[in-house]
Amino acid sequence: MASMLKLASMFRRQICMRRAAQRYFTRSFVTSSELQAQAHSPKPGDKVVIGMSGGVDSSVSAMLLANQDYDLSAVYMRNWDTRDESGTDKGCEWEKDWEDVQLVCKKLGLPCELIDLSKEYWTRVFEPSLRQWEVGVSPNPDVWCNREIKFGALLERLPINASSNQATWFATGHYASKGWSTSHETQYSRPKLLRPRDKNKDQTYFLSAISESGLRRALFPLANSTKPEVRELAKKYGLSTAERPDSVGICFVGERTRFGGFLSEYITPKPGPIVNKLTGEVIGEHEGLWNFTIGQNARVAGMKEKMFVVKKDAEKNAILVVPGSKHESLFSTVLNVPEFTWIWKDSPPHGIDSPEGATLELAHRYRMSPVKCVVRRYQDSPESQGSSMSLKIECQSPQQAVTPGQVAALWDGDWCLGSGIIESTS
Ligand SMILES: Nc1ncnc2c1ncn2[C@@H]1O[C@H](COP(=O)(O)OP(=O)(O)OP(=O)(O)O)[C@@H](O)[C@H]1O
């Protein structure tokens, strides 16, 4: 019975995805010269679009912007289709979100629009992530979702303001801030992605891969607000989303209590051995490398000690484990990031080519306290210069459970400089 349900669910999803692939629409694209003309902040009457998720953060952001004299509208992006084939729409998270967006927009008197980006999400975020999970790498779809979807596919569709010939501003409820750096010689200004006031909610890690041109048009109305203040404001102004819990789960796919189970609808099980790295002994079996992350308790039955995942060997399809969560092989000091992208692509920090390197701050997962590190460029091929580069990141202290596939982001103080995918550690 369980396998029949699973088959039915797989079939449903495939149809949903095929349907999504059939949807296609285009709007005006923005050229680089139009972006260069962008001012530091919107003027009265400028066109501003707020991305609304149905959550409290974007609702309050919309309210803060609605109090300004902008030409404001809202957009809800549907990026995942969970519609039931029978047409009952049961368990359809996006519809509830869209209803909430419409309720808040009605209250604020804002026009709102639903845009279907499920095809783009599937091809630009989910499918590449699936290929990574399959080979045992742990990707971070939320980072790619910001780059490819919110500050990618959506921005490409936002119209040019005909009267001012300015690109539309794009606001989100991210906890992040923005500043500008102006060259004395050319007077040309470049946008800086900065940490927000609420350091507990700081989302610059998730935004670390967006492009400079996307950042140029971004507005973060919650830059100076804390989460408790945001909830208070939502209550005070009677926004229907005031009490909505914070979103969890991967971007747009929604909440998934059993993430491994969810993935197994897309990836064929591939059983393999669980091996004690110290003895070489096979001590168990797994259903697929994607069910484990580095540093996780592998829950191997019949072992006296808890065994923790230290490596996923894609070639042998094996999970390597060690006893105890504090085993030395679970720690690493050096991270190799072969395609690091600086938000200012042509302007990497000073020192990365010197023997001393550049001293910066690293986060290799969301919400970790940033760690001091020394960053050096290595094995750079000429063609990769100017867009991405190979970095060796040496941490001041050993880091537990650094996971290949995860994003390593770098800051200079509060300034987020960019990010890249961790390939290996030592
Ligand atoms: N489906 C969506 N459509 C449009 N914009 C979205 C959507 N999902 C997220 N966003 C934008 O990205 C921001 C950050 O999204 P995230 O998923 O991290 O939610 P969050 O921090 O819990 O915010 P919120 O409370 O608004 O859901 C949102 O505040 C919103 O501006």
What does this structure look like?
With 426 residues, the protein is an alpha+beta fold. It is 26% helix and 27% strand. The protein has 10 helices and 20 strands. It has helices at 2-22, 32-36, 56-66, 93-108, 118-134, 141-157, 204-207, 212-217, 227-236, 259-263; strands at residues 47-51, 71-78, 112-116, 160-161, 166-167, 169-171, 177-182, 189-194, 218-219, 272-276, 282-286, 307-313, 318-323, 331-342, 358-363, 371-377, 389-400, 407-412, 415-421, 424-425. The strands form 4 sheets. Strands 14-17-16-15-18-19 form a 6-stranded antiparallel beta barrel. A 5-stranded parallel β-sheet has the order 3-2-1-6-9, with helices on both faces. The radius of gyration is 23 Å and the shape is globular. Bound molecules: adenosine-5'-triphosphate. The site of adenosine-5'-triphosphate has 18 residues, from α3 and β2.
